[in-house]
Amino acid sequence: MDNTVTGRITRELADRIIAGHIAPGTKLRQDHFAEEFGASHVPVREAFRRLEAQGLVVSEPRRGVRGCQL
Predict the structure, then answer these.
(1) pLDDT surpassing 70 at residue 1
(2) What is the dihedral of CA 69, 51, 33, 9, to 10 degrees?
(3) What is the pTM of this model?
(4) What is the rounded distance in angstroms from the CA atom of residue 69 to the CA atom of residue 46?
(5) Is pLDDT above 70 for 68?
(6) Which residues pair with 67 in a beta bridge?
(7) Cβ atoms of 15 and 8 closer than 8 Å
(8) CB contact at 8 A, 47 and 11
(9) What's the rounded Cα separation, in Å, for the pair 34 and 9?
(10) Do 22 and 33 contact (CB within 8 A), yes or no?
């Protein structure tokens, strides 16, 4: 189990997406989650990459990261 800050953010956001608390197409803002989790942008950005690899979000160049339709 990944107990890093990145791992914790990844799990929490994945849980929210799967549970439907983050609607498909919702823009996910790095600064918002960095503040919420008391972290820098680096672990949030890495969490977004992990979520994209899992098919839970999509990264769009110059547009940011959005939740995917499950």
Answers:
(1) no
(2) 130
(3) 0.91
(4) 21
(5) yes
(6) 57
(7) no
(8) no
(9) 9
(10) no
